[in-house]
Amino acid sequence: MEDRTLSTQCVQEIAALDTLFLQENAEAVRNAAEFPHAIMMLFAGYLSRMFAESKLREKLVIDQNNFIAAVLVLLEHYLLEDDTDVLLVIMDSFIDQIYDENLWLFDYLLTKAGPLLQHKMLTYKSWRAEQSF
Fold this sequence. Notes:
By secondary structure, the protein is mainly alpha-helical. The chain is 80% helix and 0% strand. It contains nine helices and no strands. The longest helix is centred in the last third of the chain and has 18 residues, at 84-101. The relative contact order is 0.15.
């Protein structure tokens, strides 16, 4: 069985950054060890929907600057752990989800991400561009 300790910590810490998300998904977050990928997908979807309305983005980017920065710092921190499950949680359940649901947000996060996360996002974006040909 895979060791999901770090990926569980990662998704629980990210969920804790947003009180509303945490309240809406409290039971799932408590049981994150079973399905950390699902929690990350829920979070990525939540974030994508938050920034879906183009008319509100500028204000939301300003209002949520610290929140976004905290999310990106946590992702960078956990990528530095060099854990396979963490990498999969971030790549498959966060980056992929954001890319599919809100390309504007993906590009915005790419400009704010730390070097390792930025590298992973650019690699993913290049891979997706190749897949579309």
